[in-house]
Design goal:
- By secondary structure, the chain is of the alpha/beta class.
- The protein has two domains: 128 residues, Cobalamin-binding domain (Rossmann fold, 3-Layer(aba) Sandwich); 284 residues, pyruvate-formate lyase- activating enzyme (Alpha-Beta Horseshoe).
- The chain is built from 14 helices and 15 strands.
- The strands form four sheets. Strands 2-1-3-4-5-6-7 form a seven-stranded mixed beta sheet, sandwiched between helices. A three-stranded parallel beta sheet has the order 8-11-12.
- Helix 7 runs parallel beside helix 8.
- The protein binds iron/sulfur cluster.
């Protein structure tokens, strides 16, 4: 029997999810190739792993899918964009959408060659959209991912790859898809499976690995309690394989740390912690559903300093209900709590999140993303959200532990990024409105 040829494509980078899908397909008997560009012609069966709402608006992706279907190559789309399958079907018109977690869907899809009736798929039939609700996998045991030969060349915030240790998050942040995609119950992988996978990455040329987004210390969380011992064993195992200077466990909630956890991060990783701070305004933290207070964030930063860890923080500006005073409180917070690095983004309403509902409910004339900025950056033609992005990027650079002088190319980069984010997020608003989709 000749095995099916399958292309797995994730635009721009080899995502971990695409590699997992590749591994599942290979284990099911397919001849799989993994790609991060659309330069080749579609052949066999095509799986697209799409992780940004912008992918739904990308003419290159749209044309590739149309070409695949014209040539009779079945084309399936999965990944975080599957949160609203109607939107994927409407914008990209693939043969089907794989909703949520792919493990239970891929083997039957490959063997039957059709999504009909498979739980976790959505497709159009005679002008009607059929949605078969997903069923989460019974276990997170799975074959090794398909690792590309050039994985060592990939650089995602300093790591070749972000590996998965568990699924789910206890948080309910209004802007985040993680609890909607994976649920709020923590499901952890076996440590032996994780370490075997990391060895395979190292043997394939990966030099630096990171634990993927969410909160690393929720690994093996159960019965309402963290399990620091399991998290520490995990870090120690990763460090033994890769070397501690080649492991990072960056993302962590400020309410999921302890002295022993911070000690282990210091001992077994590059020594950075990344907090999703988002805002210095209690009012905004409440609206965002962060579940933590401003003093808790300050305390967490101080605890990291005691453990000699570097601290990065990410901030969100231009939340639909953010007012000038909230924004000023964020600036004050940064001034009073210097970070080693700061990342700023304009609030993006990802489909299916509470933020998307709020974005649609907020009149545009009250939303900072659509209000023209009338302050000191007026000559730059910014919206208020873009002006806050630009201003906070400059402010954050100046108040870092090692201040950065922003001029020339760095200044232009902030300027360009402010405009790009504003433009792209306004396009997301239009998309949400088109599908009336909170
Ligand atoms: S803590 Fe992080 S992963 Fe969890 S819901 Fe909030 S932003 Fe998402």
């Amino acid at each position: 029997m000749i095995s099916m040829q399958v292309q797995v494509i994730s635009p721009g980078i080899y995502t971990y999810g695409a590699m997992v899908v590749g591994g599942l397909l290979k284990a099911a008997g397919a001849r799989v190739t993994l790609h991060r560009t659309f330069s080749g012609a579609p052949a066999g069966m095509v799986f697209l792993s799409l992780f940004s709402t912008q992918h739904l608006l990308d003419p290159v992706i749209r044309a590739f899918i149309a070409s695949a279907r014209k040539q009779g190559a079945p084309c399936y789309v999965g990944g975080p964009v599957s949160a609203v399958p109607e939107m994927v079907l409407g914008e990209l018109a693939p043969d089907a959408v794989i909703i949520g977690e792919g493990e239970p869907v891929i083997p039957p899809l490959l063997s039957r060659g059709s999504p009909d009736g498979i739980p976790g798929t959505a497709y159009s039939r005679d002008g009607e959209i059929i949605i078969n609700p997903p069923v989460p996998p019974r276990t997170l045991d799975r074959p090794l991912p398909l690792i590309p030969e050039d994985i060592g060349d990939q650089d995602i915030r300093g790591a070749n790859v972000y590996i998965e240790t568990h699924r789910g998050c206890l948080g309910a942040c209004s802007f985040c898809q993680v609890p909607r995609f994976f649920g709020r119950t923590i499901r952890s992988r076996e440590i032996g499976d994780i370490l075997a996978e990391v060895r395979a990455f190292r043997e394939s040329g990966a030099r630096r690995i990171s634990i993927s987004g969410g909160t690393g210390s929720l690994y093996q969380y159960r019965d309402g309690a963290l399990d620091p011992g399991s998290f520490i064993n995990l870090l120690s195992g990763l460090a033994e394989i890769m070397g501690p200077r080649n492991v990072s466990a960056p993302d962590i909630r400020v309410d999921c740390i302890s002295d022993e956890i911070l000690d282990a991060i210091r001992k077994y990783t590059i020594g950075w912690v990344f907090f999703g701070v988002e805002s210095g305004s209690t009012r905004m933290l409440t609206q965002m559903g962060k579940g933590v207070s401003v003093p808790q964030i300050s305390d967490a930063i101080a605890a990291c300093r005691q453990h000699k860890l570097a601290v990065a923080g990410s901030f969100i500006v231009g939340y639909p209900t953010e007012e000038a005073d909230d924004y000023e409180q964020t600036k004050d917070f940064i001034t009073g709590n210097p970070f080693d690095d700061i990342f700023v983004s304009i609030a993006e309403p990802l489909p299916s999140t509470p933020l998307a509902s709020l974005a649609l409910r907020t009149p545009r004339e009250e939303n900072p993303l659509f209000i023209a900025h009338t302050g000191e950056y007026r000559p730059l033609g910014f919206s208020e959200a873009e002006a806050r992005f630009f201003d906070l990027s400059l402010h954050g650079a100046m108040w870092r532990t090692r201040p950065l002088l922003v001029a020339g190319q760095a200044y232009d980069a902030f300027l360009g990024e402010a405009r790009k984010q504003g433009r792209e997020i306004r396009a997301v608003y239009n998309l949400l409105e088109r599908y009336n989709q909170p």
